Amino acid sequence: MAKVSNGRDNVSIVFEDMKRRILTLELEPGQALSEADLCAYYSVSRTPMKTVLRSLDDAGYIELSPYQQTRVTRIDVDVVEQYLYARVALERAVIRDFAFSAGQMQLEDMDHVIRKQEIVAAHPPVDVLEFHELDIRLHEVWFNAVGKLSVWRHFRESIDYTRLKILDYKRAQDYELIIREHRALAESIRLKKLDDVAQLLNEHVYQHIMHLIDDCSQANDYFK
Predict the structure, then answer these.
(1) CA torsion angle for 18, 24, 27, 28 (degrees, to 10)?
(2) Of the residues 41, 136, 166, 192, which has the maximum number of CB atoms within 10 A of its CB?
(3) pLDDT at 5 > cutoff 60
(4) What gap in Å lies between CA 63 and CA 70, rounded to an integer?
(5) For the chain, where do the domains classified as CATH 1.10.10.10 start and end?
């Protein structure tokens, strides 16, 4: 049960904890939710829980329909594919600009994030959300350095993509592979090997997730 402090708003606490549970697949895509069970889990009354569920519905985390069972939203594969297509195309251009404009401090920022991922991965059980946030931070370094941070903030807001990444972490638990891919990207950027960057980025961001969808689509009811 989530801890509720008198010093904070119960609705905010429950909302953030349910977001975390959905993103980490503790509450699985397609899973039915019982308002009564959630009230018991969080030790709150129905009024704040209804507010939380409406907010989660508005944000796309759950499907809340009158006279129907409330469920965690399933992962929309088409949305993810389009998201990845656009993101990879844009990120290639961003990394190209980064490779030719980044100063030593920005290159150090890139390496620092990867070192932090190594630290997190070296202390199991790995906090998958912390590891994922560092993954996001690495890509954010590139966008920020070339003045495209607002564009990145738009692209990073994908519940479906985040859940697929978490699914990948939990399924494979090969954090070292992800770190090696980041190291390879960083080295290609330093050497300005842009053809290598394009190939690595496509494999790291796009192909990896699409293969994951193919591998998992028959094994569970996570996908639309």
Answers:
(1) 140
(2) 166
(3) no
(4) 6
(5) 10-72
Q: Which fold has domain 10-72?
A: Arc Repressor Mutant, subunit A (1.10.10)
CA atoms within 13 A on the CB side of 41: 15
pLDDT in tens, 130-139: 999 999 999 9
CA distance 152 to 147: 10
The contacts found for 186-191 with CB under 8 angstroms, 24 or more apart, are: 186/110, 186/111, 186/114, 189/95, 189/98, 189/99, 189/102, 189/107, 189/110, 190/99, 190/107
Homologous superfamily of the 77-216 domain (CATH)? GntR ligand-binding domain-like (1.20.120.530)
Q: Is residue 149 a contact partner of residue 143, using CB atoms and an 8 Å limit?
A: yes
Tokens 């985040």 found at: 162
- Per the CB < 8 A criterion, the answer to whether 167 and 153 are in contact is no
